[in-house]
Structure to design on (120 residues):
């Protein structure tokens, strides 16, 4: 039975530069694809990407689009500038449609693992 679900993921970069953003964003997308069987049992309907305001050198959405890993509409936005928030963080939410036999598998990499310690 087809079902619509949302899966979340996040990662951090070590410094604000194009190479780091491309590397960590594509690593996260690949992990989300593998964990949720995107392209096998589900298809990606849309992608929402947010970044902390200290990321300015490159668009994570562009990294995803140019990777060719997902072909879906993408929307980018900035996280609010909250004191004490995790810096240099890229968050992604995918809307999926398909034969979902299990619950969504969220992926948090690098320092973003601190956002969801329950998923370790």
């Amino acid at each position: 039975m087809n079902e619509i679900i949302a899966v979340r993921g996040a990662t951090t970069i070590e410094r604000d530069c194009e190479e780091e953003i491309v590397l960590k964003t594509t690593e996260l997308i690949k992990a989300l694809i593998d964990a949720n069987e995107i392209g096998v049992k589900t298809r990606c309907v849309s992608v929402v990407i947010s970044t902390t305001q200290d990321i300015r050198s490159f668009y994570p959405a562009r990294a995803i689009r140019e990777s060719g890993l997902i072909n879906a509409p993408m929307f980018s936005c900035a996280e609010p500038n909250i004191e004490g928030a995790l810096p240099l963080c890229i968050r992604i939410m995918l809307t999926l449609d398909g034969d979902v036999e299990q619950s969504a598998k969220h992926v948090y990499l690098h320092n973003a693992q601190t956002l969801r310690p329950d998923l370790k």
Summary: The domain at 2-119 is CATH 3.30.1330.40 (60s Ribosomal Protein L30; Chain: A;). The longest helix spans residues 18-36.
